[in-house]
Amino acid sequence: MSGSARTTQRWFPMLALVAIATMVNYLDRTVLGIAAPYLTKELGLTAASLGVVFSAFSWSYALLQIPGGIFLDRYGTRVTYTLALTLWSAFTGAMGVVGSLTGLVATRIGVGTFEAPCFPANSRILATWFPQQERARANSIYSVGQYAGIAFLSVPLFWITQQFGWRSLFFLAGGFGVALGLTFWWIYREPSESTAANAAEIAHIEAGGGGEYRGAPVRFSLSQVAWLLKHRQVLGASIGQFGGNSTQVFFVTWFPTYLVTARGMDFLKAGTMAMLPYIGASLGVLVAGQLSDYLLKLTGSATLARKLPIVGGMLLASTIVAANFVPADANLLVVAIMSVAFFGQGMTNLGWTVVSDVAPKELIGLTAGIFNFSANLAGIVTPLVIGFAFQSTGSFFGPLVYIAVVAILGALAYSVVLGDIRRLERPS
């Protein structure tokens, strides 16, 4: 397609497709947290064993980040995303038929295995379809799906659980995801393959540092990992995102249980209240994206434009600890504190824009895999820490302190370790 008027395929349907896929990604993670108060009773799970189930997703998800990134660099976005989305959704559906702790752990490992390449693929799509000056805004738009979808689906999902049983959640989420996986294969194309993106749009993308890597696929070697980790841009972002992701893991896993058990809310009220922090996180994602691109335009400094919102967001996330000091009859104040904390965590999603900014084009998948491996070590550690601490003490006091501390450490990593944000160039 040709013409002087620039087309907008990068915004729709490509970004819209990624936004919906990301929403499904987080829906499949979150439904377990919604179902938890019911399935623990039916299957006789303790708090510690529930923590193991929550953690199991991240065992495979974290460990397969780098292999998933290598697969992505080798086979491209369309193949990788279609396979991942279809297969992780199939495992989500399978969770609806399990009847034991072992079955839950096995299916969660399956979900984690095939979700592993998703966010590296999202980062690759950002770098391919968007110039740097639009990248943070694009990241915020697709990322808001992981929060807004849960925010507005929370009440219906809690109601479905109460009316039709916890197993229905997994059948519903899994079936929708499989259908979306097939849709992704049908719709997604690289810019050069798109029949709807014209030369003006592609030139706009490439002028801003975006576009496809057109060289031969790079054969993986461990030296590439070592080379990337020698650069503070990759190391600082990876360490920092562990701190930011710990807050998110709490909300995706233990938050409904916290409202029901620690704050004494009934199930449907907990579902209504759970909406508010997710709305806060959605706003945080959007604010960070808009602010970052504005600062980039105003100052010309990607370092300032990316770091300031992320560090500010992590400091806000650390305020979650204030919920420990709220009286038992002030649940609205607790939810307000949680909403502020999750707003801050939403801002840290800008870390994915940092990956798109600094990764060599031929190693975007690998770079994103290293970054997300570190971030999702939080998905292994945090549910276990909370589960065992809650079972030992009967309180969420210690877990909330832990989340606040690691958020502060994440802010320090982004502000001190990261250094200047610039695209890394591999030696020829």
List keywords for this structure.
single chain; 428 residues; Growth Hormone, Chain: A; 78% helix
Short description:
With 428 residues, the protein is mostly helical. Helices cover 78% and strands 0% of the residues.
Percent of residues in helical segments?
over 70%
**What is the gyration radius calculated from CA atoms?**
21 Å
Low-confidence stretches: none
Order of helices and strands: HHHHHHHHHHHHHHHHH
Apparent shape: globular
Residue fraction in strands: under 5%
Name the CATH architecture. Answer: Up-down Bundle
Separate helix tally: 17
Strand count, sense and closure of the main sheet?
Answer: none
Oligomer: single chain
In angstroms, what separates the terminal alpha carbons? 35 Å
Derived from helix and strand composition plus strand pairing, the structural class reads: mainly alpha
What does this structure look like?
This protein has 428 residues and is mainly alpha-helical. It has a single domain (10-189, 199-208, 216-417), classed as MFS general substrate transporter like domains (Growth Hormone, Chain: A, Up-down Bundle). Helix content is 78%, strand content 0%. The chain has 17 helices and no strands. It has helices spanning 10-43, 47-63, 65-94, 101-115, 118-129, 132-164, 167-187, 199-207, 222-229, 232-253, 255-262, 267-299, 302-317, 331-347, 351-358, 364-393, 397-417. Helix 1 crosses helix 11 (255-262). The longest helix is centred in the N-terminal third of the chain and has 34 residues, at 10-43. The chain is globular.
